[in-house]
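Complex 417.
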Amino acid sequence: MTRYNALKGIQDILPPEIYFWQKIEEVAKDVFSAYGFQELRAPIIESTDIFIRSIGETTDIVEKEMYTFPDKAGRSITLRPEGTAPVVRCYVQNHLYDLASPQKFFYSGPMFRYERPQKGRFRQFYQIGVEALGTSDPKLDAEILSMLRLFLERLNLRGLSYEVNSIGCEKCRPDYKKALLSFISDRINGFCPDCKRRYEFNPLRILDCKVKECIKLRVGAPKVTNFLCKDCREHFDRVLSMLELLDFPYVINPDMVRGLDYYTRTTFEVTSKHLGAQNAVAAGGRYDSLVEEFGGPPTPAVGFAIGMERLAELFKSSDKFDIPVPKVFIATIGEPAEKEGLLIAKRLREKGIWVEIVYAGHSLRSQLRRADRLSARYVLIIGEDEISSGKLKWKRLTDGSQGEIAISQVLEFFSNQ
Ligand code: HAM
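Predicted structure with histidyl-adenosine monophosphate bound:
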């Protein structure tokens, strides 16, 4: 018989792992809602053009990593490699710019990139992201960074580093590109074939290359922050001063350019020293021209996305979170007890209490073993004697204490535990 496996680089998220994910999603919703972000659910598939136009034709994502295929009518479809472009498409399509600015959204769901799988890098991975559209106010940049930090702190994560940069705008970038090209041109022969191509088509991407030789050759390259125009400089300075006001522990990294072309001005990354090579937990920045690029009115915007797999990995080892377990396991001996157990379970479950019962006639011993394996907090034992006396035995598995309660008191008893 053929046994099937999930595709390479694609994993199942099972219990108990899923509890960490659910907790992260719950905390994200709480924190982001306090900042006025509302959930938006965009589709997982979009026209391929959307990603080419936004992420950039000569980025790794578009050149090598997209799941792109024709649909039955021959249209080119792509499984979203990220969430910003779909949100911008949705914003423009639904004229959300007519509503009060800024509009603030959060989203979560799977993204797809055909990358080489490794620890912390998957072909289907999940992001929680936020996008705020409609103001260039640097206060918003500082505010969403501060929101991201609050979220990560709520999850008790430590050892994180917040790197920020400004990569300027279309006014100042040409000067920087020129300076970078002239620096690279002297040593272009030593760069990897990809960087040689980037030199022609998208020189900023050279700063993003992870090949050792290229990293060495880049040492001493001009810094984008020295080329910012007056407006971009002022914007960046105001972002930084507001981060200081908010007591935000940033580090400026002038080499950070990010792997997507839509960014303007502020960019940032949150990295963890506990994750190995794929150490970016979250990343984002401004994209002030993208809405216009998609046919909307000029609308500056800023956002970020968090990688769920990496975050869950960190959250798991921060051990501040108890995995949910059944509250009550009902063990029964004999058919009348089984029926009584089913009725009690129904009543408790109606109150939202997690109750497990036993199936297909097991001995009391094997039932208790199962309760143990499930880490149930209480076992309720029902046999013939209990039914005739109307009193049930309970045992708390966490400390071995035990007692008796009347059947009529069961609901009250467990509601208060
Ligand atoms: P990104 O840097 O491409 O940005 O991805 C954001 C985060 O998603 C990364 O920092 C990482 O945690 C996670 N991630 C990316 N690729 C993978 C992968 N193959 N496997 C596991 N995790 C991964 C964006 O996607 C932008 N849309 C962020 C943004 C929103 N900028 C503005 N708004």
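Residues 173-221 form one domain.
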